Amino acid sequence: MHKFSVAPMMDWTDRHCRYFHRLLSVEVQLWTEMVTAKAILHGDKGRLLDFEAGEHPLVLQLGGGDPGEMAQAARVAQVWGYDEVNINVGCPSDRVRSGNFGACLMQTPEVVAQCVDAMRQMVDIPVTVKSRIGVDARDSYEELVEFVGVVAQAGCKDFVIHARKAWLQGLSPKENRSVPPLNYEWVYQLKRDFPALGIGINGGIMTVESAKGHLASVDGVMLGRAVYHQPYLLSEVDVMIYQKKTAVVSREQVLLRFIEYMKNQQGQGVPIRSMTRHILGLYHGQPNAKKFRRLLSGKTVELAHLYTWLDFVTEEN
Question: Which CATH number describes the domain made up of 4-240?
Fold first, then answer.
């Protein structure tokens, strides 16, 4: 299990976002948005699965609850070159629930176990699970232990646990990220009760320093929206979490490299706004942060504007 990961976030952690994040950290594990097994089997595989070679280590998160489909999709993921495939057992959205996957699968641990078993028979890469600590009325620690135990018996060796329960009725997906209280101690206790498993923690973690604190009790830490809105946090990971002696890359170095990437992607027909939207927070907390966001939010955005920005901040410094 990787010590530090960027969470899978729908509509956010696409290939352009991941490329940008990789410029900030060599070691951090990146995850795709959740992709359904059905989409992979019946849709445009290239559009859904393509990635840049530099994105490794990279996890494909799968949504689904049919063991046969999940196994076939996992096989495609391995052939495509992913390092790991993860089963989404945490998303509480109505659309996901109507497809009988996501957080509702916590109510049927045997189905998750069947998916794990079928997938492991099809691939050599790790098959992992990301879940909540509970769902609806199934929210006791004993039920969480039962879920992990059943799935682990099928061969899953690594779990990432969002330390909140999910309410499938009465709360929106956004509210499910903040209203149910955090319970880190249950995740810590899982590690004590299952010492042979890799246990990662997710939910409400806002800084690399706090992530480092969690690693005293679990094997891995995952940050999501904090990283998306303040991406320069990732520049601390290699040194603080992995004890690398590499120099921290500057915002300007990252931006220059991402401009070159965008130039290449534009040449392939990718709209510039589909890429610049991921870098709005690069100067978060800096004196010129608002000016940078305005630059990227204007009616027209051109790469020339970003070269001008680099000249401006270089003079400021």
Answer: 3.20.20.70
